[in-house]
What we know:
This protein is mainly alpha-helical.
Amino acid sequence: MTAEQHKRRFAKTRDKDCIDTKRLEEYMVSKCVLIKEMVKRACAHHVPFDYLLVDSWFTNTGLVDYVCHLYKKFHLLGMGKMGNTKYGTKWG
């Protein structure tokens, strides 16, 4: 994207009560903060769950501490980062 295209990307004015505004705010939040908010929202709405399965992107000490200190007890399943292996293919 050019600098001008990047500026115009978020130039649209939205109503504060619009769902798009809420999604845009979530887009600007870090993934670690957002997953905590999602768990908090699920607990507040009494969504029954016993396990939280997360990708290795989300598995960190902050999330583990957060889960351990919640009043609702559930299992956190996530793979820890164990090295600097890069996955992908190289074409060419």
